[in-house]
Amino acid sequence: MAKNIAASRQKKPGGLSDKVSDIVLVVICAAVMLIVAYPLYYVLVASFSDPYDVYAGKTFLLPSQFTLKGYQAVFADSALFSGFINSIKYTVIGTIYSVVMIYLVAYPLSVKDLPGRKYISLFFVITMYFGGGLVPTYLIVKQTGLLGSMWALFLPGVVAVGNVIIVRNFFENNIPRELLEAAEIDGCSKAKTLIRVILPVSIPSLISTGLYAFINAWNEFMFGYVLISSDKLRTLTPAIMLFKGANLVDWGGLMAASVISVLPVTIIFLFLQKYFLAGLMSGSVKG
After folding, report:
1. What is the enclosing helix (H) or strand (E) of 215?
2. When you count CB atoms within 10 A of the terminal residue's CB, does the N or C end of the chain come out lower?
3. Mind listing the pLDDT tens digit for each residue in 63-73?
4. Which residues, 6 or more positions from 147, have their beta carbon under 8 angstroms from its beta carbon?
């Protein structure tokens, strides 16, 4: 009996049960990946398919009656083209403005001896759970004279509280207090300390915050649809919703427009994913 117990204790991990659990996990992960990836793949395949076949449900794994008519319809539509250009312009301006404001808010909140720091932080957190909604936002934008302009898209929500909290925690956990004190002794003002000392060591956090702001600005739909009514000023996502080709609904064109709208975010993420992941990791480790 004692020998059996000793032998069981000496058994190395990796038995049959471990292999079965590994196989089950791999199957589950593969199934989840297929569920998530197939809709994206379907949009890509449908963009090269005949719109009537897409509407009839004949498109599944490969393009049905391969055609480029969907992309031709997209590039021939002036509203979609102007929406794409507007989205690029608004997103670049909105991302830069949002990141600047987030850092200007997060930096003072990271200073522990800031008067009223606790109550200011609480005020920002409350806005994450309670908001006026679309109608009050519309009325405020209208009364301030921003209705119909690009500023209506990002001025009302320029300070993303979630990003402010992430950047504030990054400053608190990853910027040594001694570094700030040394900068103060050398005669740096608060603004110089932020620009010359903090920002150079906050590149990963800066890029990850900028990527969040870029994605939110690029994917903005509701405000772009409600607050801007001109086709010349409308962004890409509302323009896609309003797009109609020669048919009642050009499914090939809609899928092609969706593929085009995803490309900028995908390309930017591929180039910046290293910094994006580094920013997330640096914000979660105290140092």
Report:
1. helix 203-218
2. N
3. 888 888 888 88
4. 138, 141, 227
